[in-house]
Amino acid sequence: MAKTIDEILQKYYDEADEGMVQKAPSTLNRGEGTEKEYFIYKIDLVGSTIFTWSRSHQTYLKMAHTFLSAVDEITRRYGADDNQVEYAGDSVIAYFPKSVGAINVLAAAYVCRDATLRMKSLDATLKKFPYFTKTVVHFGKLIMAKIGPHGDSMVSAIGPELHKACKMEKNVSAGEGRASKEFMGQLEGRQKILLKGNYKETQVLKQPETNPISRGLLAEAFSKYIDPSPLLSITPNNLSPFAIQKGISTPLNLLSALAPPVQPSNHTLQYETKRELIDYSIRWDMIPKYFEMSRK
Predict the structure, then answer these.
(1) Higher pLDDT, 149 or 143
(2) Is 116 within 8 Å of 133 (Cβ atoms)?
(3) What is the DSSP letter of 159?
(4) How far apart are CA 137 and CA 105, in angstroms?
(5) What is the pTM of this model?
(6) What is the residue range of 255's domain?
(7) Do 57 and 99 fall into the same domain?
(8) What does the alpha-carbon distance between residue 115 and residue 98 come to, in Å, rounded to a whole number?
(9) What is the pLDDT of residues 177-218, one digit of tens each?
């Protein structure tokens, strides 16, 4: 059996060895992959599993089928790749070619969210579910590859950018949507108002200001003197005019200027707030207003 396992592993390893090529995804051979830029859209129906635990399988079937199929059709209508729509539990991942444009991906995300909220009107049982969704949109290069058990007939999207999009969902609260910095970079002009920045704030120690003159004298002095005792014999007449102008008129003042800066005590430490942009929240209420203004 060990030999058989080794043979299986070697077979598929050889198929993928040096398999990155410049081809259209539809022309790839098994084990080959090519890079292509995509918008990644992920929507998840929050809490549906818990909701259906105490209800019939028929209810779960209706909910899952309606949600997954509706999102699938809507995303395709807005330009998602027909061959790149994935289902993972109660979530959908759709891939939009770069040519579709980020603004149309946001429009698709808005319509999918709105359609999901309307599901509660279908029957009395489904009305009891809140229909909160989590949405993530991202942009990046994906590896389109014919791999895995369906590699003979199906092209799959893989790569770090897909993992990044999925990890973003951890920071999304129910009912909200997040967009990556890369996605924001694909929006143009007024379209950027549809996203709002999210920042991480941390307190960092504020660096004390140091007199540049002292640093210069310190560097120059220690480059010439190893033993500081000769400095004590310097008289004001021997000091450079520059040093006298800066108030260093005695050897003692010179030594004081050459001394390293005193570190502040814990009582005098000062901190400043550092803001780091993490991602963006989707402003759902602004999307229909934007398209209404665009039509005028």
Answers:
(1) 143
(2) yes
(3) S
(4) 8
(5) 0.75
(6) 212-261
(7) yes
(8) 25
(9) 999 999 999 999 999 999 999 998 887 888 766 555 445 555
